[in-house]
User: Which sequence fits this backbone?
């Protein structure tokens, strides 16, 4: 996987394992005890969440969610999804919502002023600033993902140990 060259912010991977779901979950429990302070492993039904432990965690530290599915041939399919910390993700979505709301509001105000033959330069400037803010948020997310690539690789190595 080359995360730097992909456009998506949340990276995915698909793997298969000859082990059963029960065996994989049992190995997760053993690995959880072995790596307790450095990594946090949580299992629920056919889902596994891997994250960096509190001592090594940074604001850009990724999390890995793995969904386990039984295949017809008896193997197990692992669908992995890397993502940011849920608190950071929620903050980003909140900021995007605020920026979009400001952009739409000032767009409506600018259109109203334009249709009434009034000056709307201030509103257009605010809309331009919101576009720049969107660009900054995108850049910030890409930079954080790039900083988190070494920890993504660590989480991938944990998955290889499990399967």
Assistant:
């Amino acid at each position: 996987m080359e995360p730097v060259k992909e456009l998506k912010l949340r990276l995915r991977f698909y793997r298969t394992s000859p082990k059963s779901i029960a065996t994989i979950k049992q190995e997760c429990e053993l690995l959880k005890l072995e790596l307790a302070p450095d990594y946090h492993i949580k299992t629920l039904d056919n889902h596994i969440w891997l994250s960096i432990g509190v001592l090594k965690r940074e604001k850009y530290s990724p999390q890995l969610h793995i969904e386990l599915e039984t295949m017809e041939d008896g193997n197990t399919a692992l669908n992995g999804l890397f993502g940011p910390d849920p608190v950071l993700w929620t903050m980003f979505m909140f900021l995007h919502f605020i920026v979009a709301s400001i952009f739409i509001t000032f767009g409506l105000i600018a259109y109203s002023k334009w249709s009434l033959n009034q000056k709307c330069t201030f509103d257009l400037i605010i809309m331009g600033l919101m576009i720049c803010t969107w660009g900054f948020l995108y850049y910030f997310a890409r930079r954080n993902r790039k900083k988190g690539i070494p920890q993504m690789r660590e989480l991938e190595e944990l998955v290889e140990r499990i399967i």
In short: DSSP finds four helices and five strands in the chain.
